[in-house]
Amino acid sequence: MMLSLYFVLGIALSAITLLLRNKLLSRIIIYVFLIVQTLMNIYAIIHQGESELEYFLFDNTAILFLSVLTLLSYYTVFYSLIYLKRNRDNGLRVALYISALMMLIVSVSGVYLAQHAGLLWVLVEATTLCVSLLIYHERHALSLEATWKYVFICSIGVALAFVGILFLGIAVEQHGTYDLTFTSIATQAAAMSPFWLKMSFLFILVGFSTKLGLFPLQTIKVDALTVAPSPVGAFISVALMNAGFIALFRFFHAFSFADIGVWMSSILMWSGLFSVLIAAVYMLFVGNLKRLGAFSGLEHIGIVAIGLSIGGTAYYAVFLHLILHSLLKSGFFFHLGAVFNHFQTYKMSGIKDYFGKHPVSAFVLLMLLLFLGAVPPSGLFVSEFLIFKSLFVAGHHWEMIVLFILLTFIIFSFTRNALNMIFSKDDHAVEEKSNVVFLQILPIILLLLASIWLGYFPPQAFVQFIQNCFI
Amino acid sequence: METILLTIFSFTLLFIGISNRLNTFIRMLTLQGVLLFGITFLKLTEINWINLAVILLETIIFKSIAIPWFLSYIIKKNKIIRETEPFVSYFWSLIIITGFIIMSFIISGSLELPKDSKPEFTVAFASLFTGIYIIITRKKIITHMMGYMILENGVFLLSLTIGAHQPILVNLGILLDIFVSVLVLGLFLNKIGNTFEEMSIDNLSNLKD
After folding, report:
1. 8 A C-beta contact, residue A249 and residue A61
2. Phi and psi for A114 in degrees, rounded to 5?
3. Last residue of some domain: A237, A259, A281?
4. Which domain covers residue B29, as residue numbers?
5. Is there a single domain that holds both residue A273 and residue A376?
6. What is the tally of structural domains in chain A?
7. Considering the domain boundaries, does residue B171 fall inside one?
8. A240: nearest Cα among A217, A271, A208
9. Is residue B187 a part of any domain in this protein?
10. Cβ contacts (< 8 Å) between A125 and chain B: which residues?
11. A308 vs A91: which has the higher pLDDT
């Protein structure tokens, strides 16, 4: 009951925003929406393990990522309102932005909760529409180019994922049922035709890789993040990646009951290694802070895919990695708003002597870059360490060595860029005034602290909760 | 009867490969819509009439009237040059698409498919490959769009092969069609025509380091 109310309210609120096109009312509506989102999240936690509307299930995986999403939507709204105020957009554009953001949050929540293969696919498709509106927000030639590419490649990806679901349909039908819920697939996967399940997994992986930002269709996500407003970049680099991960994980988990686990693992391993390789190569030459963040996302999702391919104890590390990455990567993109406000550019060559000009903000940027490179005390160090450990235990020595070398390159790029921006001398310094207040930086420091806390001193309940995800 | 329609469908794929005018392209898309209408009518006799009506409406109204009309409207409005401008010569396109069709026969011949669905499966696969091929080898954004339509027709045909018992899958396929086409065509083709002088993919290579 609550869930249908949530969907209806979400759609209604965004429709009202579009109809009214008023800045002040849009603000009020998004606050109301945040309350609705929080209530839904609390309801999901209370009703853990129950299913609703037949095809939605409040399981541990969903609740975990839903909570991250709710936290993230608070941050996104906070920074979006700062962004919109500074940008002086007119009422229509503000309304479009806010209503697309609300629909995006609703559809991502739907993706987390969906238990039916077809429904999941529809909701993933719905995210494309909202994201394309958001990345088109600044409306110049570059954003049009990125939006066109995003929409077009995502459409192809969505069509390929649909072909994957059709193949799954063949496998299910040959077995004699017509039920496409994940629980039913999982219980009967062992008796289904391995060939069709393999084909299905391959197409679904390629199709959803647009959302994950994973090799082979990773490019559009990088382009989209380059032109998106920084709060939107924060949201889609994290929430959308998590949504793609959940979508892939549901299929992976259901199919792993069939006899194709080894085959799926090797596909994921290669996909992950290629992602990290591409990220490492591009990061050496990258010149734009947003693209640096985007390629770092490619690296992390590659590590996640590798962790997923090992399975077993690495599952905990994968989930921890995704959650910590959500905190840090979104923090990085949120902080770019302040960086842009100081220097009026995202180009790293235009950012000089940051520490001399704005010490607090520069320190936070330095910490974010180091933490994203998984340098201790970053929580990501713990999860990457656990993934390396399971790679070693599982006997993937060569893959581990390659990954080590690639990660060294990535840490090198991070530190080089960070040092260049923060400590280099600026010969043509001009007196700048900026209106970044400490209140804008404080939430990001909280994210950094939270990542240390969850990485090194995770509460027992949290660990138990994650481990209950894969029973 | 169904086999005849499928054969004509694969001829349209070959014809698309060698057509050098955008109008021919659009006519072929219209023809494909009508053919899909016929195939649906013959194939899906078991499902209930509401579903059947929706599918028929989609194939005839959406695929063979609305989309072609909209494409020709855009061509007129943005004064697009009426050549298709391929990277690969028409002769080679013909050979490659023929290769795709042969390959699809081999693939579907070697698979264990639901009964009576081999012909549809073959043509659907050929259509998928051709769509992707057209997207890769043509220069204009609008031809990319048309390539995507061909790909989607292939996906639709594929969903028909297993849709006799699982109508939900066919309905999802229709959703894909409508959702994506409306989004892509409505929102962006107009804008791209206004922002860039000529609608060529050469304008779309500025995003890099």
Report:
1. yes
2. -65, 140
3. A259
4. 2-204
5. yes
6. 2
7. yes
8. A208
9. yes
10. 175-176, 179-180
11. A308
* In a domain? residue B209: no
What is each CA distance from A393 to A303, A313, B50, B75, in whole angstroms?
16, 10, 57, 60
Do residues A151 and A297 share a domain? no
Say yes or no: ipTM exceeds 0.95: no
Cα separation of B125 and A289, whole Å? 42
Query: Is A178 within 8 Å of B165 when comparing Cβ atoms?
Result: yes
Query: What residue ranges of chain B have pLDDT lower than 70?
Result: 182-202, 209
Q: Pick the residue of B151, B197, B209 with the most A CBs within 10 A to test the interface with A by mutation.
A: B209
Residues above pLDDT 90, as percent of chain A: 61
pLDDT tens, position by position, A331-356: 999 999 889 888 888 888 888 888 88
Per-residue b or e along A115-151, where b marks 16 or more CB atoms closer than 10 Å to that residue's CB: bbbbbbbbbbbbbbbbbbbbbbbeeeeebbbbbbbbb
Tokens describing residue B26:
């659009």
Query: Among all residues of chain A, which has the CA nearest to that of B141?
Result: A148
| CA atoms within 13 Å, Cβ hemisphere of A358 | 24
Q: Which of A121, A155, A174 has its CB closest to that of B172?
A: A121
Query: pLDDT tens for residues B52-104?
Result: 888 888 888 888 888 888 888 877 877 777 777 778 888 899 999 999 999 99
Do A271 and A353 have their domain in common?
A: yes
Mapping DSSP onto H, E and C, the string for chain B reads: CHHHHHHHHHHHHHHHHHCCEHHHHHHHHHHHHHHHHHHHHHHCCCCCHHHHHHHHHHHHHHHHHHHHHHHHHHHHHCCCCCECCECCCHHHHHHHHHHHHHHHHHHHHHCCCCCCCHHHHHHHHHHHHHHHHHHHHECEHHHHHHHHHHHHHHHHHHHHHHHCCCHHHHHHHHHHHHHHHHHHHHHHHHHHHHHCCCCEHHHHCCCCC
Tell me, what amino acid is at A429?
A
Domain of A15 in residue numbering reads as 1-259
- Structural domains in chain B (count): 1
